[in-house]
Amino acid sequence: MPDDLTRVPGAVLDGGVLQHVGRPLVEQRELLRGTAVAPRADRRVLAITGEDRLSWLDSISSQALTALEPGRSTELLVLDPQGRVEHAAAVLDDGETTWLIVDHGDADALLAWLLRMRFRLRVAPRDAHEEFAIVGVTDAGLPLVVAASPHGVPLVWHDPWPEIGSGGVGYASDVHHPGRDLSWNEVIVDRAELGRLVDAAVAGELALAGALAVDALRVAAWRPSWASDVDERTIPHELDWMRTAVHMDKGCYRGQETIAKVHNLGHPPRRVVALHLDGSDDLLPQRGDRVLAGETEVGRITSVARHHEDGPIALAVVKRSAATGETLTVETAEGAVSATATTIVPPGAGATAAVPRLTRLSRRTAAQ
Prior knowledge:
The chain is α+β, with helices and mostly antiparallel strands. About 20% of the residues lie in helices and about 30% in strands. Helix 1 (about 25-35) crosses helix 5 (about 210-220).
């Protein structure tokens, strides 16, 4: 096949996903410079046609989509009745079709759920994987890729992270937020264009970057991922996902009560932190490894990467009560790794509503 990545010299694949081409740290720099592109076989495209598509998605997801303009990028979450994250998708509409870009492991389940939720509405979700693929690039690399445009609008999803969208809420400090250093895009291309990119890479005319490079840039930007950072308990507040994926002022949707209650009256029970790991022993933790404060487990690793500047880094979800600013230990299969935590979601996140307190009357005052 023309888009067969095994033809690329040095390509290392896992389950069809390009991991690297022999130099994952260099690939990160090339992505940032705009001299490399990243084939994203770990991402899939779903397409939704029909007159009711935007209002329908608005009613069943966390994002306000009814008035989404063609070419404008956003993202949505599908929550369960308790507000826990079930599905996540990047969203782009071209005036005729709404395109969802989702993690490969979530695509089938999300499509099945969408098909069950159609009722009598004029919507037609389908899997567009055979027609289209995803290529990741920074802003500087956009000229290297020709986006599909079946209805005249180039299908380029500009990642809104970390800007706080309309109706969104941010918990992390926006001062020096590392996400501002990464202008990321996911481009929907037809299969012929992916083949052209692979041919150029085989000929030495184009550099490719793998999933290790892409994930390192994501982790450094504190950007949450459904595939890595979500478990069966995750609510959006814990990952600071309220800033780009949740609209606080839209109509009702499943899980909305938890979203509002935690933000206005409570605190998220867990919170994401960024970890800088001790690289002296060359041990790299794995997703799920325990994070300890002294002898007490306070959380688990969700994402881990080796960054071209920062070295070994990770995201971890810890208890809200975990102390800030202290040195933690990550327990790996090969030994302990010390880690310095940077707060992303602070312990006091939420409880934003000014709830009036009733004056407690003494017995003597009440008797009078």
